[in-house]
User: Fold these one by one.
Assistant:
Number 1:
Amino acid sequence: MGLRFLTAGESHGKRLVVILDGMPKGLPIENERVRSELKRRQGGYGRGRRMQIESDTPEFLSGVRFGKTLGSPIAVSIENEDFQSWQDAMAPFGEQTDKRAVTRPRPGHADLAGGLKYHTHELRDILERASARETAARVVVGALCKLLLQALGVRVLGHVLSIGKAKAPSKQTLSEADWQRALASEVACIDPNAETDMIEAIEQAKKDGDTLGGVAEVRVLGLVPGLGSHVQWDLKLDGGLARALMSIPAIKAVAIGEGFEAAEKKGSEVHDAIFFDKKQGFYRKTNRSGGLEGGMTTGEELIVRAFMKPIATLMNPLPSVNVRTKQPEPAEIERSDTCAVPAMCVVAEAMVAFVLADAYLQKLGGDTLGELIERLDRYKNLLEEY
Ligand SMILES: Cc1cc2nc3c(=O)[nH]c(=O)nc-3n(C[C@H](O)[C@H](O)[C@H](O)COP(=O)(O)O)c2cc1C
């Protein structure tokens, strides 16, 4: 069956809840790792005030006992500390006493399409769930999947390549020092000059009442070849990764390896020639494919990029129309981020970790971590014999 997860929760509701189903038994879980991933998502230059007043804490409700997974569904909740001030507006029962409905849809957000679809003029019914607050629950899933992948010798890392027009220089290989810099940077950037440009760009956008998007890159080290499959459309790993990344709010494009750039080049400039030596086995000198060919991992580093559009809530709002009166009015202003690319990067890592943890389970099966590792070792021996 593999892994699956569902989330529940409104942005200003009482709690977020996530259920992750299909994790093998016996995986050590460090609560601190889950906490620190949530903290990474909350941070980043350009986030709104809400992220500064809340501190996301995961509460494990099921599936983990004495620090190890049981093999049963893992349920985790995160309290919305902001709920205190939203109790009346978001009460599950009773009457709406606060009559101020959200009626001026924000261009670029889910407000109008959702209002039309659900035939409601109270757009808060839509925006509460469309809000990217939900991605905190995905980061919990990602943290758990990263722990599973770590036990299989795999690391998932991310960094920000650009914010608006401020770009970090592209690098084929990233060193441990680069990754540590990205972790320490307020914009998750490996390059100090680009970091300054990115922060300045965010400051300028904020002054202008405007917002910015950008690009994050996720790289995965230590993958075996042959994860995913070429035999059926929905088993192709590139398709699975693209879907998972595109499902993150505000992601409008995904690139695998050279992605967009490859479409402009000749085949001889794009494909990664194949070499062999006794020590390394089959290997490539370049990795323009981003570690995926035919819907399967090649054994090279996996490299994917997620492209985020600018935040839809503008402090200097675009024209809109009041859905009740049908009169032109500026779009609604909600407390909001100026730029959330660094936070999106953490969510992108989480989604990639989920897809890959699932791919390992699909390939190897097994009910316990021990079984999974045994099967992985056997597969690695087969690869060596090839
Ligand atoms: C981490 C993260 C934080 C976000 N924060 C905001 C925000 O504060 N305000 C906002 O209007 N949109 C924010 N967004 C984007 C919206 O959730 C998204 O644009 C909206 O749900 C519409 O979906 P779509 O852009 O995928 O069409 C954020 C997205 C991510 C990934």
Number 2:
Amino acid sequence: MKVYVFKSLPPFLWGYTRDLRAMWALEECGIAYETVGLDCGPNGLQDEVDFGMVSPFKQVPTIDDDGYILTESGAILLYLAEKSGRLIPY
Ligand SMILES: N[C@@H](CCC(=O)N[C@@H](CS)C(=O)NCC(=O)O)C(=O)O
């Protein structure tokens, strides 16, 4: 699974960005993943990997699960929980 995240941020944003939610859930669910790092410039996310083709609003987090692409941190967390059977009760 690929997860698109910030690779650099100004210090005042450390710990506050939503890509952390996806990475936290991936770790807790025990799902193997690789990160695709994007730079955060003064005007927002820098489109260095044609990110607009993956995420229409060019925002992180976005995941790519073998071609199944999902944006929105809340939707990603539910998807990961359901996929792994962890984090939510059944
Ligand atoms: N509702 C979205 C919001 C995502 C969002 O705002 N992402 C920010 C980082 S926390 C972002 O990518 N900002 C860069 C930009 O908009 O250029 C979610 O929960 O995933």
